Amino acid sequence: MITAVVGILGTLLAPLLQQRMTARQRAEDVLTEDRRRRFEERRAAYTAMNRASRQFHTLLKDALHRIRDEVYADEDRARLEEARRDYRDRYAEAQMIVPERVLEASRELNTVLAGIDAMAKRIDRGLQRDGETAAGALLELKEAEPRLSAMRRIMREDLGIFD
Length: 163
Description:
Elements: H1 2-68, H2 74-94, H3 100-125, H4 134-141, H5 144-158
Helix pairs in contact: 1-2, 1-3, 1-4, 1-5, 3-4, 3-5
């Protein structure tokens, strides 16, 4: 009689246990996929933000050289403005998905780049403030380089890449 009851209970409970195990496995799979998706989003945002930051920095430096050499042209202005907009857009996208420490590093870099960009525009328009020159702005732009490196390092660490 006990054997029969155990057999019947086993027969009745086996599908329930199987269903529960399947549901648990599906939940774990969904969680794993969600983690992978968020990781890929962060990695894509970091890649885009790093590329845009470096491009803006490079074109800003080129613009300052060309302003200093008095060969700055409309084409140069357009390329710099396009890079600035791309940088701004990548930063705005990243704000929604990256951790605060990455945003803090990016804000520090942004402060330098935006300040130099504004200075370059004033110099180009002949509206520079006292002491503002293209050569001086190039020296100040050097402050962005360690900030670019710090931002990249923090992004890599967040992705689990340690040197």
